Fold this protein.
Amino acid sequence: MMASMHPTIPAALALASTVMAGIAQQSATDVPARRATVLRVVDVAGRPIADATVTCTGTVLHAEPWSDKADVVTATTDARGLARAALIPGLGYHGWALGPAAADGKRLSSTPNAWFGAGGVVNVLADVDLSPRDVVISGLEPWREFAPRIVVTTVLPGQAAVPLVVGADGHASVPALPPGQQWLQMRAANGELLWRTPLQAGPVAVPPPLRVSLRAEDKDGQPLAGVTVRLRDPKTQFVAFDAPLPVAPWTGARLIGVTAADGRLEAIVPADWNPFVGQQGDLLFEFDLPGHVRALSGAFASNWFVADRQIERQGPDVIVGVLHPDVPIRGKVNGAVAPGTRLELRTTAKLVTGDAGYILDPRAYQTTIGADGAFEFAGVPEFLHDSRLMLLPSAGAPLADALALPLVSATPERMVHEVVDVGAALRLRLRVLDARSGPAIGVTGYVQAVHADTRLVRQGATRFFVDPSGVADLGLTPGRWALFVANDSGHAAAVIDTTDTASELEMRMSDAMLWQLRVCDADGQPVVGAGLAVASVSFPVTKDPDLVALQVPQIAWLRHYLGRGRTGLDGELRLPFPDIGATVTASAQLGERQSERFKMTAALREREVRLR
């Protein structure tokens, strides 16, 4: 089964005869013209919802997906439940709908529909009942010197924070917001984030301020002045490639200040525990000084660290940051890449806990490419688990302006192990046809570097979107690449080698088979509005790097795609299921009720389950 996923290139792709020379960088003003995109909003019974507000937010997914620069477009549905939004081809969009508010403030909402491109038709299912809710907040008084204010934020890109008015009794009213992760934040008067927690039911207690003494030292124990210290937010993480909804980026560090001549600095942090007297939570600080490796010190995951290494508990009253001289990671990009182009190194560093133990800690570093193509990353730690190097597109430009680069690692000599040669890179025009030979408008695509070390491909995939003419422009460096495209009606996949591939490729999507689930209650009656909770997606075990590279995007796509549907009035959910050799373990779910787990494969296309 899996061998059929990457046939030889002549069988899978129609190749043109010429290779494009060079890779031109578009400017920020060369954004493609917007194209009309239709969004159809219905409830679980399939009835159209009029006067719903539809929001689409488009981003360059791999580069700065949660930037305030997201392209945000709103539209209102007509009597047929249709809304038309003018979107930018090349960007990846989330779309969600909020129905009109009733007299009591209640409204229907959809779960954000993840990852679609401009020019197509998107079905939006409004299946969530939202209501305004009250929250009781205590513990603000000790923070009065910061003039704190409370806001609610969501993980959806481009969405502004919603300020809350907190009464004298601590009560505040939270309006109906789109579903998904929401955060209650305490910010200082200048906007600085002081503390945050997931917004959940029940009262919220802000931890009291804790004064912590910090000291920065060099490797010989001498004080270091001018060290910038930030408090790391342990709730943040890397943007997850396979997340069906956005997650917080790795930028959750609060500036504390700069150390004085004696290397000291005092921090005021929220903590309802004292790490120096036996109670321990996450309290991790970044110490940063030019010419030195950025060091992490403090408490994290029930361990104490100094400069990324576990130690015995610090104390009695100071957290020490030890900084070592930096040996930068250097490399060179050859080829037609404009000086000043941004380059990002995403790494998974190691917080070393013993001779063979460590905690993985994602971090990101940015730099710019010099006039001679040279680049340098400073402050990167010595111990890295894996890395990914990416050219970022110019501001405001879509993914087509980015080059997908292979995964790289740092050698013990602190040098990138290979020069990134863009001079020989291919500007690939990919044309995608649906099963009826028409353009696959707005289809989601994935490009994944094939790597001999199959452990490294888990961080390497990048989404792209086919434009309204069925075309996507990609920049690929020399090497083997896995391509996968899919939508509600079909899919196509191939592995190509850009060292001998022409500049235009064509992929034709095959029809997906229909997979049908019927959900009943204990009495055998149909259940309306039940969805799928995906537990796992697996493929036959293989050591073939090509197959592993194809599996990564297929797993990601199936996870978020299968979770979007809901059963109708007949209790049935019908989903096109691609024949790609996957086995999906899932259960039907409605609120707190869930069925037993079952297997989904292309060979087992019908199932009836009961909610417990």
Remarks:
- The CA atoms of residues 9 and 496 lie 7 Å apart.
- The helical segments are 9-12, 545-562.
- The two ends are 35 Å apart (CA to CA).
- Residues 545-562 form the longest helix (18 residues).
